[in-house]
Design a protein that fits this description.
2 helices, 0% strand, mainly alpha
């Protein structure tokens, strides 16, 4: 396992959470007004960006778990 890659994946996950989770989290109680087409398009873009970045983070995580330890870790 490459702990540096694991740490990097964790840092990217924290960054994603800080930047975008609040945008895609459902509102408490829901909305009483239907969103416009423009609002729906923006929401879909935000969910798509979140999903793609999350996929990339998970890919890095799996690579870190399958990788050999980096040389500066000793063994």
């Amino acid at each position: 396992m490459d702990t540096q890659k694991l740490h990097d994946a964790y840092q990217r996950l924290q960054s994603l959470d800080d930047r975008l989770t609040h945008k895609i989290r459902p509102r408490a109680g829901g909305s009483m007004v239907r969103p416009s087409a423009d609002q729906l398009e923006i929401a879909v873009r935000e969910v798509a960006a979140y999903t793609i970045e999350l996929k990339e983070i998970l890919q890095g995580l799996f690579e870190s778990l399958g990788a050999s330890p980096s040389r500066d870790q000793g063994s």
